[in-house]
Fold this sequence. Notes:
Helices cover 20% and strands 39% of the residues. The chain is of the alpha+beta class. A hairpin with a 2-residue loop joins strand 15 and strand 16. The mean pLDDT is 95.
Amino acid sequence: MAENMLHTGLPFMKMHGLGNDFVVLDSRQTPVVMTPALATALADRHRGVGFDQLAVIHDDAEADLRLVFYNSDGSLSAACGNATRCIARYEMARTGKAALSLRTERGLLSALDTGDGLTSVNMGPPQLAWDAIPLAREMDTLRLPLDGAPTATGMGNPHCTYFVEDAEAVDLAAHGPVIEHDPLFPQRTNVQFAHVIGPDHLRMRVWERGTGITLASGSSSCATAVAAARRGLTGRTVRIELDGGTIHIDWREDGVWMTGPTAHVFDAVLTPDFLAGLA
């Protein structure tokens, strides 16, 4: 942990996209040395701050900024769509830009201010091959050899989408962790349960690997839209009703675009005492 953090504290921002909430640290302003212990301490909603994912902003030589994501269990995540949208909105407001490039482990992503308080991010082309998602062995990713024949999709992180009669009737807490840790997924997986409302309308709920039940998930929304289109259940442009609200997904030739609202809730500072307890 950086010595200056122990003396001055550590500024952070709290943001959310449709209730999918984040702690965001801007390492360009105050250098951050992130560790799994610090991430899990911050994730504790009783003794820390609480978040679904944590994001650290860094400078980048070629992009407007670089993002590194952590799950609430301290593990790294290659992609976090709603956090990317939230940070893009923050950076647009800070700089006055209407378009940004953001580097993540997923690659170089584009973000746009689409007006009316909405922010769009291109999450890149979906990964549809078994070894890119990745799965443990070669198989048809459209219908996996699991009960319910779910669809696997990679969005920089792995996803497993079940299409059911009623997503709201599914016991996420019971099924989510079992599927997350199935041997078929060597890097674990995010899990979605969705049902079709109409040809361009889905209802979806999500279990995120390393986090659990969340009110929304950007990359899960992208994966669910791709899976629904591949299975002929919808077109390539859909709106998805999540527990936290509505997000719009458009699977285009250049990638999967995600559009929705964001919220920058508050700024605060982690105290030296809190940080010293983790040193």
